[in-house]
Sequence to fold (324 residues):
Amino acid sequence: MTERSGSGFWTAQRVLVTGGRGFLGSHVVERLKALRPKVLIVPSRRDCDLTSLPAVESLIKKERPSMVINLAAVCGGIGANQAEPGRFFYENIIMGAQLMDASRRLGVEKLLQVGTVCSYPKHTPVPFEEESLWDGYPEETNAPYGIAKKALLVQAQAYRQQYGFNAIYIIPINLYGPGDHFNLKTSHVIPALIRKCATAAETSARSIECWGTGKATREFLYVEDAARGLLMAAERYNKPAPINLGFGGEISIKELVELIAKLTGFKGEILWDSRKPDGQPRRHLEVSKALKEFGFKAETSLEEGLKKTVAWYRSQVKAGALTE
Ligand SMILES: NC(=O)c1ccc[n+]([C@@H]2O[C@H](COP(=O)([O-])OP(=O)(O)OC[C@H]3O[C@@H](n4cnc5c(N)ncnc54)[C@H](OP(=O)(O)O)[C@@H]3O)[C@@H](O)[C@H]2O)c1
Fold:
């Protein structure tokens, strides 16, 4: 989708983006601005805590959005999921459920709920097809988060069936890119590895230690591609079935570490702490439905996206902008 192709659609919209100041959200908002929606509302958690129903209702009554894009979530890597499973379950389900219900009752025309690949069963046949979502329990370390998100798919489908509410559900694979969170305790795998390797390269460390065995595989989607895909879905997709949003290829964590080591200039040894969990054994999405239903295809290769992410990370370190 070029910035201009959707402009007729978007200029008529009053768009509310919740979670719009987060990592993915800030890229979605940047892209949306270029599409010139009639109104663009991007509240922070302080402006509207989505776990509070009165706050959600008063936001929607005040702003009267025609389109809601819900990107708000509490999320993070394996460590963050293991540290706060209760919070990850409760806040994700309550934020999404309240926002969707208030949107339906208060006249919103369409809502896009973002899901997560963590909802897929632990041993989903690869590549993951949308039809496999309910064929088993998710990988234990991220199940509370994944199930809370998956419940919102049921809500979207039930609301379409009972109330004719146009709620769609898009499932992005793991994202990475500029603006990601680089806190070692809570970050996802790519920012954690970039930080580790870049720091080790700068201090000429002999080795770095990584979690797990390195054998698990993952797929990664560059965040600007993800933002483009979500807006294409928001504009063009109006059906109950969930749709995967991915890059369409997988890489082992071992190969990923080697690639990031190369891009950051770290030449030392990579040690594996196999007492730490690998997480889900394999992650790789089947991505043909996104192309068929709303024309999305990822454009940024992993190496190209990682180069931009490493450059962004280094610019932040140089500017003293990374506080954690
Ligand atoms: N990152 C990934 O790899 C990935 C992959 C698949 C799906 N997703 C999904 O994509 C979405 C965005 O993820 P992200 O990585 O961009 O996360 P993020 O950077 O942590 O952003 C999450 C956003 O949610 C907001 N939020 C959290 N609790 C809130 C509350 N109680 N009330 C209002 N807002 C609240 C945060 O607001 P404040 O900034 O004001 O705290 C933040 O803007 C999430 O739904 C996530 O599940 C992400």
In short: The pocket of NAP is lined by residues 18-19, 21-25, 44-45, 49-51, 71-75, 91, 95, 114, 116, 172, 174-175, 188 (CB under 6 Å). The mean pLDDT is 95. The longest helix spans residues 85-105. The chain is about 45% helix and 15% strand.
